[in-house]
Backbone:
């Protein structure tokens, strides 16, 4: 030791510049998407990009760096719903209605995004391809309920496809009602109610679309 204070500036050394904190672009995008959803819920489908930028508390040019166009912003709502559905469908079957139960519990973390995608923009025909992408997920999952039994009347493939598509609107309408909390039920009662509906719906739909062997006419004694 030579008695000098240990000063990092001694000897002509310059202090290293303080690095700027890194911006988490994905987190910012998620925050902006939630804010945009709140703007659309408040102002309806006609909300402008200025409206959503104001809701996010960001200058419009900054908001445009994340979402370069209104169309891309709206598509992001549907992508969020799609990705969440894919994730929640990975689990194993856990009783009638399990898929919507798991999806709902996850969707509750960002309910505005789901409501905007499934309700606010429901009447826009230009978004039909985005809606169809979501419907196809439900259809593929529901198809497992409708494998035709051996002995079903001829030509069951088309009937199986139509039967599995009958569930789509009910599922999405129910999800929105739960997220808006307008059915007057607790989550526990919702899950029991919906599970019973799905069980009966499956039985009634299999019968209506003739996916099982026809009942034999009892012989008269």
Residues:
């Amino acid at each position: 030791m030579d008695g000098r204070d240990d000063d990092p500036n001694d000897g002509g050394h310059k202090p290293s510049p303080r690095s700027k904190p890194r911006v988490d672009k994905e987190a910012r995008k998620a925050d902006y998407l939630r804010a945009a959803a709140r703007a659309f819920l408040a102002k309806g489908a006609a909300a402008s990009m200025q409206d959503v930028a104001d809701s996010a508390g960001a200058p419009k040019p900054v908001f445009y760096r994340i979402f370069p166009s209104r169309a891309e912003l709206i598509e992001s709502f549907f992508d969020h719903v799609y990705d969440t559905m894919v994730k929640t469908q990975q689990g194993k079957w856990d009783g009638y209605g399990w898929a919507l139960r798991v999806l709902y519990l996850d969707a509750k973390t960002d309910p505005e995004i789901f409501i905007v995608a499934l309700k606010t923009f429901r009447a826009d025909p230009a978004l039909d391809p985005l809606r169809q992408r979501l419907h196809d997920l439900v259809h593929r999952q529901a198809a497992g309920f409708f494998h035709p039994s051996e002995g079903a009347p001829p030509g069951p493939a088309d009937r199986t496809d139509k039967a599995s598509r009958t569930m789509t609107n009910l599922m999405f309408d129910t999800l929105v009602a739960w997220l808006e909390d307008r059915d007057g039920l607790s989550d526990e009662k919702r899950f029991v109610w919906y599970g019973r509906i799905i069980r009966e719906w499956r039985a009634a739909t299999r019968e209506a679309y003739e996916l099982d062997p026809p009942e034999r006419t009892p012989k008269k004694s």
